[in-house]
Every structure is written in C-alpha cells, then in structure tokens.
Amino acid sequence: MQEQEAIRKDIEAALAAVKIDLLEFTVGRHRGDVQVHAVIYSATGTGTAECTKAHKLIASRLETGFEIIEPFIEVSSPGIDRVFRSAHEYEVFAGQGIRYLPGDETEWRSGRLLGLGDGLVRIEADGETIAIPLAGICKAKLDSTREGKAPSARGGE
After folding, report:
1. Strand partners, 116
2. Model-level pTM?
3. Do residues 98 and 51 make contact, with C-beta atoms less than 8 angstroms apart?
4. What's the CA gap between 68 and 73, in Å, rounded?
5. Which domains occur in the chain, in start order?
6. How far is the C-alpha of 152 from the C-alpha of 75, rounded, in Å?
7. How far apart are CA 94 and CA 150, in angstroms?
8. C-alpha torsion 27→30→33→36, nearest 10
9. Tens-digit pLDDT profile for residues 68-117
10. DSSP at 152
11. Which of 111, 140, 108 is nearest to 125 (CA)?
12. Are 93 and 80 in contact (CB under 8 A)?
C-alpha cells in the first residue's frame, strides 16, 4: 500500500509538471502482471493527445523510478458527467457546470462550480454565490449541459 501511494505521488507530480491533473490512480496485479488505471484531466481539454502523453509519462516513471517493466496501463478522461470522488475535484473542475445533491434535500440542484476553499464549496446559481460545507453535499457530478453557465439552482433529476 505504501508503494502504491509513493507511485501515485510520483506520477501525480510528473503529470502536474505538464499541466495534467491525476484524478484517480490504481495499481494492481493480475496473473503476475502489473496493471495501472489512471483518470486524468487537463483544463485545456482531455483528449487522445493528453491520454497518450500521460500514458508515456506513466510508463516511463514506472519503468525508471520503480522498476516495473512492461506494465499494462489504461488512461482515460473523466467523462462529461463525472461523479466527483474527492475534494480535489471541486478545485480541478472550477468553472464547470455542476449538479449536486445537498445532504438535507431530495432534489438535485445545478450551478457553476467556483471552487473549494476552507471546507466550503462555492457555487454560482441564480446570479448569487452560495457556499455549502463540503460535508453537506451528498453527491455531485459535472453537468455537461451547463458548461460555463450560471444556471438556476433548482433542477430535477
């Protein structure tokens, strides 16, 4: 487990140097082979070129830094309606449309994510900025239908 965390930190730093965020990273073994899964994001767009760059960088770091020879590596983008899995994603996806389910409500709300600071998620909705404690959000995901817009706070799902 400590080795996986060391690998993750190394890969995360290497990707950050080329302006790519590492959202998910797992290393495992299957029938003796090392398998790696990474989900990446680039603010300028996450397409084939970014996935290829990340794949080459990950392979190089694993082989030279950790002596893992010929690992199976899968690199993907987060997808247009990604469900948030960590607090880091509230920072990475700032400026994007978001749908979120407050912990004390049953209806989804929508807005434009402004970011995370001091444990508060800031969202622009209905022309206002609201701040919600991170712990007060049950679930959140990107809303590709509202990219960059400041939509109404109410929206059913």
Report:
1. 121
2. 0.84
3. no
4. 11
5. 2-76 (3.30.70.1350), 88-146 (2.30.30.100)
6. 34
7. 12
8. -30
9. 989 999 999 999 999 999 999 999 999 999 999 999 899 999 999 999 99
10. -
11. 111
12. no
